[in-house]
Structures are given as C-alpha cells and as structure tokens.
Amino acid sequence: MSNQADTIGLFDRAILIRATGDAVLKLNPRQLIRNPVIFTTEIIALLVTVVGVHEVVIGQAAAFSLVIAIWLWITVLFATFAEAVAEGRGRVRADALRRARSDTMAKLILDPRDRTLFKPTPAPELHKDDLVLVETGDIIPSDGEIIEGIASVNESAITGESAPVIREAGGDRSAVTGGTQVVSDFLVIRITAEPGSTFLDRMIALVEGAERRKTPNEIALDILLAGLTLIFVIAVATLPGFAAYSHTHLSIAVLAALFVCLIPTTIGGLLSAIGIAGMDRLIRFNVVATSGRAVEAAGDVDALLLDKTGTITFGNRMASAIYPVPGVDERLLAEAAAFASLGDETPEGRSIVTLMRDRYQIETKLPTNATLVPFSANTRVSGIDSGGRSWRKGAVDSVLKLAGGIPPAAFTEAVSRIARAGSTPLALAVDGQLLGAIELKDIVKPGIKERFADLRRMGIRTIMVTGDNRITAAAIAAEAGVDDVIAEATPQDKLGYIRKAQEEGRLVAMCGDGTNDAPALAQADVGVAMQTGTQAAREAGNMVDLDSDPTKLIEIVEIGKQLLITRGALTTFSIANDISKYFAILPAIFVATYPGLQALNVMGLTSPRSAILSAVIFNALIIVVLVPLALRGVKFRAVGAAALLRRNLLVYGLGGIVAPFVGIKAIDMILTAFHIFT
Amino acid sequence: MTTYGILYIGLALILVLGSAFPLGAYMARLFEGKIRLLAPVETGIYRICGIDPARQMGWASYAIALLMLSVVHFGLLYAILRLQYYLPFNPQHIAGMAPMLAFNTAASFTTNTNWQAYAPESMISNGAQMFGLVVHMFISAAAGIAVAAALMRAFVSGGLKTLGNVYVDIVRITLYLLLPVALVAAVVLLIAGIPMTFDAFPTVHTLAGGTQTIGRGPLALQEAIKELGTNGGGFFNANSSHPFENPNALTNLFEIWLLLVIGFALPIAFGHMVGRKREGIALFAAMALILGLAMVGDYAAEAANNPILVHAGVMAKPGNMVGKEMRFGIAQSTTFNTAATGTSTGAVNSVTDSYTPLGGLIPMFLMQLDEVAPGGVGSGLYGMVLFALLAVFVAGLMVGRTPEYLGKKVQSREIKLAMLAVLIQTMFILAGAGFSLLTKSGLGSLDNAGPHGLTEMLYGWTSATENNGSAFAGLSANTPLLDYGLGLAMLFGRFAVLIPVLAIAGSLALKPKLPQSTGTFPTDGPLFVGLLIGVIIILGGLQFMPADTLGPLAEHYLMLAGKTF
After folding, report:
1. pTM score, two decimals?
2. Transmembrane region positions (chain B) (predicted)?
3. What is the pLDDT at residue A261?
4. Maximum C-alpha span of chain B
5. How many domains does chain B have?
6. A238 touching B, CB under 8 A?
7. What span, in angstroms and rounded, lies between the C-alpha atoms of B63 and B66?
8. The domain containing residue B35 runs over which residues?
C-alpha cells in the first residue's frame, strides 16, 4: 500500500499543534453536548470556577477550589484534544484529496453524435447524464461511466497507487472517478454524480469526519455512560443530606471532585476518538467505508463470502502436469504442447510454455510462416498451423471431436482424475492425432489456509463462491480449507445464500465488482466493492476498496473487531477505575468528622486535600495517556472469544482496578514532594 | 468463628443448592406449560375468572394486565385493612387501620415487600392476616415468578411477538408450585410446633402470678408462604425470632431452605428454558458466591469480639450475642438474616439493629446490590439477567463483536431500560434516606444518634425500595413521611423495574436468535461469573459507598475507637 496518510505519524507535530487549537474550539457547549459525560464535566468545571472566583472576591482561602477547577477544565480539554488529534490525520488526507478536486475544466460535449464539439465548463457545474470528453493529460472532472473509448488512467489521487489502470467502455471496468487523470488515449464519459456528491466529495467528508454520525453501538454506549453519570449525580447530590446529618461540611469543590472522578470521563473523553481512528485505520488500508456503522458490522460478521478467483487462488490456472496417451513419448507431448501455446498470450497459455521450459528444457520459437489459430467460443480450441501441419489444444470434448474415434481408456481416466482434483484438463492434438492431456491447476495462494483457520477460531465461516463445477470447487475448497462452497454460482445464488444466512441470524460480508454483484453487495451486511468495479457495484456496497484487492475482506473484519475491542477495553478500564477513587476521596472528605476512616486511606495519601487533588489529576491525565491506545487500537489477536476475553479482562479489567491506585499514589507523592496542599 | 458455624453455613447452602437443580428442571417444565396435573381445576378457574388461556400477550399487554391486577389487589387489601373491624375472623376486635398505614401496608404486600410499619399482634386481625396478607403473599410471589418466566421465554427463540399469558402463568405457578410446596411445608412446620388456628388469643396466668395474652393464629401456613414466596411478613412483630414462628434449630434450617430454594431454582430453570444448562448455572454460581461470601462475612463480623463489650467485661465469650436468640446462637442467626436479605424475604430471627456495624452493613449491602443473590422469587432472576445484560454490554465488546447475550443483541433500547431500573432504585434509596435525614420528622423516627441512626434510615429506604421488607429495627416507621415515602419507594422499586424488564423481554423476544460460535462472548464460564459479580458490585453497589461510609463504616471505626451510640 502506498499513500500519503501512511507517512503521517501518530503524533505528527503539525497535527498536534492544530489539534491543540481545535481542542479549545471544541469547548463550545453547543458542540460538546453531543458528549453527555464531558458536557457534564464542563458544567461542573464552570460551577467550580464561579465558586472559586467568588471565594477570592469575598477573601476566603480559595486556592483549592480554583486548582480543582483548573484540573476539571484540563480534563475537558484533554477529552476534546483526543477527538481533535483523531480528526487531525483525516484532515491532512482530506487536504490532499481537495487538491485533486479543485479547478478542473471539463469538456462538455454539446452534441452526443459529435465528440469534437465541446464547451469548456467548470467541473462543479456538471450534472448527471452530461457527456464529457477527457483526453490525454486531462483530469476526469467527475464520477462517470465510460460510453466510448479505452484509456489508461492514473488513479493515484484516490488510491495512492501510481501505476495506471486500464478503463474501457462496457464490462466491469467502465467506471471512472473524478479527480483521476487520463494518461493516454481519450474517453467519453457520462457523468453519474451530481455536484457535491461525487466519490471524491464523499471521501473528503468521510476522512474529515464531517459526516460522522454515531453508530448504533456508540449510541448504546452513550446511554450507558449517561445513565452512569445520572446515578452519580444522585449519589453525590444526596450526599450533603447524609453529611449534614453527620455534621460534616462538604464544599462544592470537593463534591465536584468526587463526582467528576466517579463519572466515566475516560471512556467519555475517548469514545469519539476511537471511532474516528477506526475509520482512519480503514482508510490507511485504502478502504473507504460509507459509514461507521459498516465498520462496526464488519466486526460482527460471521460469514465471509469469498470469490475463489483472485481471493483464494491466484486467479489464473497454471499448467502443472502432462499426461501422454499410450505410445506417445512424454517429451514429444511436451514439445507439442509448448509449440501449440506459442501464440496463446493468455496466462494459461504462457504457463504451458513456462512449464515445458522449466521441466523439460524445451525452448521453442514461433516460425515465421506459422499461422495463429486464436481461441473462439465456437471451436473452443486454439493453436498453430505451420508447414502444413496443425497443432490444436483446447477443451477435451472439442479436441476429441477434431481427433475423432474413441480415445484410449488411459486418456479418459487421466482426464477424469484431473477434474476430480479440481483442475482443468486440456487435450492436445497434432494433425488430428490425440497426443495427451495437459493439467491446468488452480493454485491456492500460500498462507490462505492458515488465515481461514484463524477466521474459524474467531467464529467466522468462510464460503467460497465459484463458477466452477461442483467437483472442481470441492477439490479447491478442501485444499484451501473453506467451510462451505457455492459451486456453479450465479449472482442469484450469492444473493440467495446471503438471504438464507441472514435469516439464520448471521452477518455476511462479501466483495464484488460487477454490476451483477450489486444486489448481493447491497444485501450483504458488509459489501466491499472494488474501485475497479462498475459504478453500480460501488454504489451498492457500503465500502470501496481502492486497491481492488478482494483478500482485504479479512483485514476489514479485523479492523472492525479491533475498533470494538478498543471501545470495550477502554469502557471496562474506565468503569473499573472507580473503585480506587472511592478509596482516595471518601476517607479524605469524611476523616475530619470520623478520624477512624483514616483506615480506609489504603494508599496512605498525605492529606485530604492532596488525596482529592491527586484523584482529580489522575482522572484528567489518564485520558491523555490513553490517547495513543485509543488511536492505535488494542492489538487484535486471531484467537477465540474466550481467550480474547480472558486476556483483555485481565489487562483492562484488573488493570483498570489496580492502575489508578498506583497512579494516584504517585501523583500524591509528587504533590507531597513539592508541598502542595499537604 | 467456630468450625460449627462454618459447617452450618455450608450445610444450609448445600441443602438449598442441591435441591435447586431438580426444582429448577421442574419449574422449566411448568413455565413451558408441560405440567397440567390439575387441568380441570385450572379450566374451572379460567372459566370463573373469564380468562382465555389461549390468548398470547405481547410485553405491553402482559405488563398492563399485571399492573391492573396489582391495582385491583392493592385496592382490595387497602379496603380489608381499613374495614377489618367489620369483617369476620377478628376475635380480638382490632380496629380498622389508619389510611396512611393502610396505604403503606397495601403497597408493601402488593409488591412482595412485606415491610411492616404496623405491629401485627395488635393492629391486624386474624382474618385480615389470612385473607388479606397471606393471599398477597401467594399472588405477589407468583406475579414475580411470572415476569421471570416471561423474560426467559424471550431468549428461547427469535422473532417472538408474545411472552405468554400473565393470568395463566400466575394460576399455574400458584397451583403447581407455591400452593403444594407451601402446604407440605406448613404441615412440616405444624409438626415442628408452629400453631395453626383462627381462635382468639388465650389469656393465661403466669407462674409469677400475673396474666399474659398469648398471640396465635393461622401461623403454619403463613410461615410457609412467608419464606417460600420471599415475603417475610411475620404474624408477630418479632418475626422469625418468635418461638411460634420459628421454634427450634430444625425449623430455622427449614425456613432458610424455604426462603432460598425458589430463588436458586430460577436460574436453573432459565438454563433449561434456553436449552443451555451451563448458562443457568453461571447465574446460579454468581448468586451463590455473593450469598456465600455474605454469609461467611456476616458470621465473621458477629463472631468477632465487640471491643467495647469485652472492655466493659460484659461479654464472657467471643462473639456478639446481643439481639440474638439463645436457641439459635450466632451462626444460625447471621445465616438466617443474610439469607433473608439476599432474597427479598426480609424475615429476621434476630435484631439487625444490635449487630456490629459490619454485621449490619452486609445485609444492607446485599439489598443495595439490587437483590440478586438470589433475590426475591422472580425479581432476583430478572434483576440478575439485567446485570448480565449490562456485564455483556460493558465487557462484551472486548471480544470484537457488538454485545449479545444468549444469542440476542444487546442494543440501546435494552441498555436504556436496564439503566432506568438501576437509576430509579438508586434514586429512591439515596434521595429518600438523604432527604429524610434533613427533616424533623425523619430525625424523630430514629432510635439512635450518630452513624447508627443514619444506618437505620438508610436501611429502611433500602429495604423498602428493594422490596425486601427487612427491618433494621430502631426506626419508628409509622409516620406520614415514612408511611407514604416508603410506600412509594416500594411501588416504584417493584414496578419501575418490572415494567422495564418486560419491555426488555419484548424487545429481545423479537430479535433473531444468533447462532453461537467460537467468536461469541462466552457467558457460561467462571470468567463471566467473575465479571458479572464485578459489574453487580460496581454498577449496582458502589454508588452507595459514600452513604454507607457515613453509616456503618464510620460506626465500625468508632466502635474500634470505643465510642457507642
């Protein structure tokens, strides 16, 4: 992967400077109200500030209230800073994308029949169904469908990949994206997007987080956090009643400190940063998700529909063995096979030549007088005519028809053995004489079996989709270790399979590029369209892979899971933190009334005021300490849920209980060393 | 602590936990409608009451029907209490109850709380006890179990629109569970020496030459359902410390068994219903661990020396015997009281007010944990499931999937409702007690000053809100503030949990049931049990820490410093 965002470090200086400014701007209550926990903290900070200032005005010893107020403001600032840093990297990416969009002049075709007649028009004024001409060196002004021409297009502005790709009218390579550049030839494009809603516009909005809406899980988590906040409002607001009965006076600053320490400020402050960082991770993987909801769904997916070709296998079948008929020398067959394939520029054809050279040291050259016989759907054979002789290779039944007669039993058996193994048999005849069979094997990508085993451990089933017949499909499936196969698959089969799996309560992810994949892409819970795919496919899916690499589906699932794990880990950590804060603050505020409660000061904090301040400082600092974790995400391991839970519960649950005891004690020791509130 | 004491706790728990398994299996069959031994009786009841047993109810209809039933029962009980003077079976000619006390008592028995702001012997007739209170002890218990059954059904499969029929559930639970067990238990208690009569209280001449009126009534049956239905409303003010309610060690053990057994059988029934027994056992284990720890802790607190009494030379042998019956001793008393506060029974066989501060804190904390170990019949299970949903929601994300419990996604609606339930309980306890302590009337109700008085008030509001009904004693609760305040606390503590629970059940029932895989958050192992207990303590209990610190904890350290109140 190569793109500019990759080179931006987690804490780039420019991003940090900009984020610091943004953090202050985000204090605006109207913006902050989206985050109930931090909004509440801001109100409390304001209240304590007013109390502190009032105390100064009337001449009371006010330092403590003001110091608490300052730290409460710092708590709020750290939370807004976390969000600003998370947004920062997206901003840098968005700026780069914006440069690709600006100042393009389009050649608007006035008469559909004559593409030479056009009017220069600014790109933002193009509308759906307008026709434009794009020639060598031109920037494609907007998203569109090629209706005429073939050209190579540099899409690095979007994908970061500098090697140009071929785009042509018709078929599955007909979509072009605004902001990319034609580097050779010309195209006539029908615009498919209204101004402001092109792929580039959407991508800018996404990486900037402007369109960020809370995902369902974030909303639920917000409700939990708001509920907890309310519970502690009750617990702290009723405390003066109990305290008055006990002849204890509790100042506003002390109550505010207790309250802010108990409410889940840590996760409240980091929640949106985690979500933005999750989207950002996906973008750095060159995958654009149209919503955060899709990323969340990716974590939930429990069935992956994977196209065999290109995902599980290399996509092109390669020659792996030859089987001569009885009486034919193996070398003779090899020579004939190599010669017959000389004119065949398909990967299969080239693989035959390569195999013969590597295994039989056969070097052949195309004679000058040879006539190439290209493959046709009618004859289903290809070959060479040279010197009055003919070499033909192709589908077994077609070659047999050419050869005539009944093939030897050994040949028939070899052919069926090849098919049973999941490979494709080709037959070879010279001058109508059957020489033998060539095995074309679908090569399974190395390491893919292990990935599938990882997925199985994570509880995700893999389903291979292929147009091959059942026998071939089953053999490849066994070799790759998938859980299920859809053989002889039509787009309708895919859709049906997804519907059925969803009825069983499964969440399905798939990727596709063709227009006929669109219904299945739309039906799937996570539909990843390839950037090289058609416009219809790209609109049906909820993610677009800019690298057009179908294997990436697996990484997308892992990124989704990582996002959820990070969110869960920090929630657990934040809530587990509360235990220590009771031990820090409760003895501190009541020890004057009941000296015996000093026994609850298990951390041995120096004084009541240093104890309260230490808890408040810890509560603020922990947010900024956890920002890197929130942005990078908790490391994901492909193990089962039980093992994952055991580990994370130990680290973030138990760690969440223990860490603040250590942290608060350390801060108290520092305060004591400097004689602050001791 | 003595070996005997620990063995006693062990024995009580083994008896309960052992019998919970077969009873749970039976109850699952009962909830599934497979137990129809008395089908003709059932049909008769349905015909008389005009119930269509085939009608299936959605969560809202289920909740409304249950609410209407409670309103009618509340009204009837209120009328009986007010009019008891004119009603039969009133040999002592006890006058009608005052309106505020009748409100409090009707609320108390409709909500399965059995908070008794009245003195039973002198303020309520035998007839009102039997036909007012005891009837409610059956109905309110059956209603709680019915809601638990409805919630269980929500997890059985996907796309369910209905949760059952509340009337049928209540009739069957009464007919096939509460009545038969209570009747057998009543006979056992009768044989063990508990009276059962409608006759007037006899007046006897004592050996010292004076006269004494001896209270008696239809005790054996009331005692049986009082424990079995986790009600706790005693015939006598002294409750289970009275020799007629709990004459000996054997009845004490039997009563502990009665009050715990349904509570522990419910998670087992849950496991059977959802087809994964281990899931039920996990909830069961969490309940058992919390209760077991509380029992041992409470026993340890009471078995330890009270330094003040030892110093004064009052206490001859170790352990705090103050407020305990000599025939039970420490272990039998603390085990009974923790069992009665761990369930929402609230019966007592000793006076919690006279426990050491920590000995009193533990029963109160059990209630503050929202009564889930094992809690009231039905309410304990559904409270536990609420916590399981919250636990799964908080930590479930850590396996990389959005949270699900038993194949049902836990989403914002469920979290909203579960938090609402926790919130309302917290509010009534803390706001109620905190406010009462600021009023003159509230302060006037306290027997003691200092943190002990604070505990008395906090305990009262906790007990009422959590529908326990246990009295700390030392709180004069028959005042307008507490009669009305605690009455409302009981009603909200019951229905503001029960209705959200049914709403959650309705929402979960509709959701598809997701298949289980190795990627699913495991909720049936020791890890989840530990997590669940952690969540119960952090989300359900810690918000009471500040108040508890000013009450029992402060008193504990004062006691260590030699100060009393």
Report:
1. 0.88
2. 6-28, 59-81, 130-152, 173-194, 256-274, 281-301, 380-399, 420-438, 484-506, 527-545
3. 96
4. 79
5. 1
6. yes
7. 5
8. 1-565
